[in-house]
Amino acid sequence: MGIRNRLLGVVAALSAAGLAACSGGEAAGAAAAAAADPSAVAALVNNQAIYVSDVELEARVQGVLEGDERLQVDSAEFNEILDQLIDIKLLAIEAVGRGLDQEPEARHRLETARDNILGNILVDRIVEERVDEAAIRKMYESQIAIWELGDEAHIRHIVAPSREEIEKVLAELKSGVDFAVVASRKSIDEASRMEGGDLGYMTEEEATVEFAKVIRETPTGGVSKPFQTDMGWHVAKIDDRRKEKPPSIEELRGPILKHLTMMQIGEVLKELRQGAKIDKQTSPRNLPLEVDTFDLPPEDPSRPASPPPSFEASVPASPASPAPETRNPPATATQPDAARAPSSPRTAAPSPAETAPGTGATTQPSGPVSESREGDTP
Q1: 54-98, pLDDT tens digit by residue?
Q2: Is residue 301 a part of any domain in this protein?
Q3: Share of the chain above pLDDT 70, in %
Q4: pTM exceeds 0.70
């Protein structure tokens, strides 16, 4: 795993500082303090401390915590992770007792782990200093300005097991019986039947081929011709049409935060490379870095503006906000999969190429990544 992916993981896990001690007679007070203070001691292993912050960091690495969530110190999750850290501490103490930390390979790996951890801490600081609410809002507004909004239709449907049954349903509708009433009595789609067959709003691009045709060919207020899917035979009604709404800033906060963070890391790495002496001992002809892997290709004025970054990608959660929702919500109890195509917003596109510094190889950002335990010196 490269240093760049390790750096990405720290967006969701901040370092803790400070020390706190407790003893048996103060256990109740210490537990209360630990609940509010991540620098409190969670356990002592041969007089070596494991802090509440260590447990919470590991919880973020394992995906137990996201954003600014906290673990209750008396919870099963907290104590399960604490037991894992106790085992790690015991193994590390034993390794030192055997002198393994003085072996060349161990010293090299410990130094590498130290570099990774310091890099993570630096990225924490960069995010705190440069990625603020104003920057997030500015990017949100610029993306919404180029967001391509289409039309969406509010659809109801009735499903029957055979062509003969759906023809009977259609005859009842033509006699003037309300569509929602017939759906509640006759539809075999249990997910939407009690909601009068309501599937909610969807665009042609979100819908399956069959429902996209209904949206395209059925007038507002009209009922479609019978059509067949894997669920059975349908008739559908277009209740309403409206302009698609753009996503909210909270829906896009996570992807925007990821993109801004990568931009800032890229700027810092460019500055550091310019001021550093880098001698690649294993590179062919030992060529210097000539291509700026963080620069984007020039825009072609003959092409339309680039769409927003991909809002479906898995991204690190913001320390200040919950994980973002996907651009198009998955089908709910009133939105069966038979009506909706797999979620893939037509305006979404991959975010600007994110390449590992100095390699030119594109990478996908990972979630929180554990800071190597090799760096934990007992």
Answers
A1: 999 899 889 888 777 888 888 999 999 999 999 999 999 999 999
A2: no
A3: 66
A4: no
Q: Which residue has the tokens 């005859």?
A: 171
Q: Is 76 left (phi over 0), alpha (psi -120 to 50) or beta?
A: alpha
Q: Is 155 exposed, middle or buried (0-12, 13-18, 19+ CB in 10 A)?
A: buried
Domain of residue 164: give its range: 151-243
CA distance linking residue 3 with residue 25, whole number of Å: 44
Number of domains in the chain: 2
Find the Cα–Cα–Cα–Cα dihedral 27, 29, 30, 36, rounded to 10°. Answer: 150
The whole-angstrom separation of Cα 316 and Cα 309 is 15
Helices (H), 187-304: 190-193, 209-217, 249-275
Let me know if residue 314 belongs to a domain: no
Of 243, 274, 309, the one marking the end of a domain is 243
Please indicate, yes or no, whether residues 80 and 156 belong to a single structural domain of this protein.
no
Which CATH number goes with the domain that contains 213? Answer: 3.10.50.40
Q: Residue 58 and residue 64: Cα distance in Å, rounded?
A: 9
CA-based torsion, 206, 212, 214, 220: positive or negative:
positive
CA distances from 225 to 28, 190, 202 (A): 70, 22, 19
Position 213 in a domain: yes
Q: Which two tokens stand for residue 212?
A: 């996209």
